[in-house]
Amino acid sequence: MDAKDIDYYSLGFEFIETKEMFVSNYEDGKWEEGKLVPFGNFEISPAACVLNYGQGIFEGMKALRTKNGEITLFRPKENAKRFNDSAERLLMPIYHTDSFVSAVKEVVKANEDYIPPYDSGGALYIRPLMIGTGPIVGVKPAKEYKLLIFTVPVGPYFPEGFTGIDLEITKKYTRAAPGGTGAAKTCCNYAGSMLPAKETKERGFAQVIFLDAVHSEFIDEVGTANFFAVINGTLVTPKTVGTILPGITRKSILDLASKKIGMKTEERDISYKELFEDSCTEAFCSGTAAVVTPIKSVVLDDKRRLFSEGEPGEFTRKLYELLTGIQRLEIDDEFGWIEKV
Ligand code: PLP
Ligand code: COI
Questions:
Q1: Same domain for 17 and 91?
Q2: DSSP E strand boundaries for 101-206
Q3: Contact assessment for residue 148 and residue 125, using Cβ atoms and an 8 Å cutoff
Q4: How many domains, in total, are found in the chain?
Q5: In a domain, 257, yes or no
Q6: For the chain, which end, N or C, has fewer CB atoms within 10 Å of the first or last residue's CB respectively?
Q7: Domain end among 132, 154, 176
Q8: 284 shares its domain with 217
Q9: Nearest residue CA, atom 12 of ligand 1?
Q10: If you measure from the C-alpha of residue 135 to the centroid of ligand 1, how many angstroms do you get, rounded to a whole number?
Q11: Is residue 185 among the annotated active site residues?
Q12: What residue ranges line ligand 1, CB within 6 angstroms?
């Protein structure tokens, strides 16, 4: 779509084609230099490892426009590192972190016209993707790969936005088990989460909260974001033990809470039962797409806990304001998290 024809003020989180994408192929044990090409289809063997055995990984990032018209990225090296951690788990080749960050910047510059204006609150979502393209029939890694980076202008991931979302705790489905691929950003983790998401949406919830696969008791994460709660004034979040995605927003929020607000923070097991106690006063989820989204209520079977109605909790608001203020260069970037494009 032509950048001029987009209504940036009513964007949701839907695919919109932009102009250019970055492509690099891996053959004979090395990556070619890679280049920008017009966004479009490409040929792939029906025997490609990604099509048959799901050998694919991705990242999610955002380019934001500031009030002064500058373009920012948030901690892009962290995404490059996590991309390589995911690659290692799926026996895929590493992509050099500096090359990853410069390729991301190239794609953003090439699609600059599609970055939503500052006052729309939107962003240019960046999707780095690596797939095993080499033909395979036995279950083993491909020999050839393709790295793609494309962009999509987006608005809020959850249309409810800052009024908060209703979530359902699921005991029917799990997302990841110990020893599995939960900590890697692999395509397959998301394929399996679509049915739980569809079913819960039909019941009126924005998403599910997944519990741990062993005890069905401890919170893992929300379908597409990390989970936080304020319990007895302490900010708590599930620890990263291989079954949740180690979110970059999560890590940043832990720093903001302890260093900027002076909150006590804990990474620990959180029983879903704690959410139904009075000591738990706020809950929210975090992610590149979700930013900081307040959790209005959680439900398990016939039990409902209401956290907030209309106005999110005090700490949720403070953390949202600090995070987005730094991301849009309105609050001093004292941690050195921002890279300008
Ligand atoms: N958990 C899942 C399953 C996700 O898909 C995401 C989004 O990337 C996150 C957590 C949050 O991670 P980040 O803050 O790095 O975007
Ligand atoms: C993100 O927050 O970037 C995600 O990857 C979540 C979802 C869009 C898959």
A1: yes
A2: 123-132, 145-154, 165-170
A3: no
A4: 2
A5: yes
A6: N
A7: 154
A8: yes
A9: 247
A10: 30
A11: yes
A12: 60, 221, 224-226, 245, 247-250, 286-288
Is 308's C-beta closer than 6 angstroms to any atom of ligand 2? no
- pTM score, whole prediction: 0.96
Q: How confident is the model at residue 309 (pLDDT cuts 50, 70, 90)?
A: confident
Q: How confident is the model at residue 71 (pLDDT cuts 50, 70, 90)?
A: very high
Q: What is the pLDDT, as a whole number, of residue 320?
A: 96
Residue 64 has pLDDT above 90, yes or no: yes
Which pLDDT score is estimated for 211? 98
Please give the number of the atom of ligand 2 that sits closest to the Cα of 62: 3
Question: Catalytic: which of 77, 185, 251, 260?
Answer: 185
The CA dihedral of 102, 125, 327, 228, to the nearest 10 degrees, is -120
Segment 236-295, tens digit of pLDDT: 999 999 999 999 999 999 999 999 999 999 999 999 999 999 999 999 999 999 999 999
Q: List C-alpha distances in Å: 274 to 84, 150, 277.
A: 35, 41, 5
Mutate to test the pocket of ligand 2, among 127, 154, 288, 291 (most ligand atoms within 8 A of CB): 288
